[in-house]
Amino acid sequence: MLDFAIFAVTFLLALVGAVLYLYPAFRQAAGIPGITPTEEKDGNLPDIVNSGSLHEFLVNLHERYGPVVSFWFGRRLVVSLGTVDVLKQHINPNKTSDPFETMLKSLLRYQSGGGNVSENHMRKKLCENGVTNSLKSNFALLLKLSEELLDKWLSYPETQHVPLSQHMLGFAMKSVTQMVMGSTFENDQEVIRFQKNHGTVWSEIGKGFLDGSLDKNTTRKKQYEDALVQLESVLRNIIKERKGRNFSQHIFIDSLVQGNLNDQQILEDSMIFSLASCIITAKLCTWAICFLTTSEEVQKKLYEEINQVFGNGPITPEKIEQLRPSSFMPLVWYFRILILGHLHTSLIQIGLMMNW
Q1: 3-state DSSP call for residue 95?
Q2: Which residues are 76's β-sheet partners?
Q3: pLDDT, tens digit, 9 for 90 and up, residues 240-285
């Protein structure tokens, strides 16, 4: 009888513990303000969808709970940092995995990644070297694209509206595609084709997967799968072309090809980088230019430092590194911690030629 009683109590405690853990209302990050999951499987994904976007969801969450908040992306706990100071405190230069990259690979149903620490560290270094080397090799290209955009803006009457988001997306697509995939994308038609497929894939990553609507709509799902196949086909052809050959223009894919990666790993890493870097570059450029053009104080500080650092000399990567982020907003600091190491170069070039 005693043995049965002990068993019954133990079983009851285990059952209560399981309920407390599995039931969404009780899954709360210890010590971190935030919200519990609304659904056991999807976490707070329904809340994100109802908010309209992840951005609006996070803005509301930080307004309610402060600069550090937690929420659930499916069954994964996510902590969001809402200020630069908090972000600085939590940067880990030795980190070998990126949750954003992991999420994208999961949504694209890619299997590579999740290897041991040494493998992840090696792939991270390959990507970092890829950004650095492609930036150095394509610096003149970035200046050229910036000058082309500036000439277009200067040709407009002062009263004409500038579709900034559209122009920044075009700038990002032209620069990123050539830095990642090479001279094939000097052809505007290739860029337009890439942009169309990119938009189809990215829109479904942002919505179709989150609310489950993609699997319910056969037409949209076919369009998504066709676009993804076309993007992958382009990447495969470029990877095949670059293997075992030397080119004067070093691109991001070259660094992956020269590393100890198989073709599938190169394809997946190139796809993730291409998808994310285009949209992030476009959005950051849009907001940075917007802030620069609406703040006279920032314009003045930037103009003074540009004169001090560059003078009448040429624009070089070495001189750009001498610019102090604190003097004209923490934008450059942001760019250095992002994988898009080339972004601040383009941005300052555009700002320099605005003649504020």
Answers
A1: coil
A2: 73
A3: 999 888 888 899 999 999 887 888 889 988 888 888 888 888 888 8
Range 343-347 average pLDDT: 38
What domains can you pick out in the chain, each with its CATH number? 22-91 (no CATH), 117-352 (1.10.630.10)
How far is 354 from 299, CA to CA, in rounded Å? 10
CA 4 to chain CA centroid, Å, is 57
Instruction: Say if residues 177 and 281 touch (Cβ distance below 8 Å).
Output: no
Question: Which DSSP string corresponds to 318-344?
Answer: HHHTTS-GGGS-THHHHHHHSS-TTHH
Q: How far apart are CA 139 and CA 313, in angstroms?
A: 16
Report DSSP state, residue 208. Answer: I
Q: Nearest-CA neighbor of 298 among 355, 350, 356?
A: 356
Q: How many CB atoms lie within 10 A of CB 249?
A: 13
CA distance 330 to 315: 21
Structure tokens of 313? 């000399």
Q: What does the alpha-carbon distance between residue 6 and residue 295 come to, in Å, rounded to a whole number?
A: 71
Whether 162 contacts 156, CB under 8 Å? yes
Q: For residue 199, give both structure tokens.
A: 């938009």
Q: CB neighbours of 145 closer than 8 A, spacing ≥ 6?
A: 171, 174, 175, 346
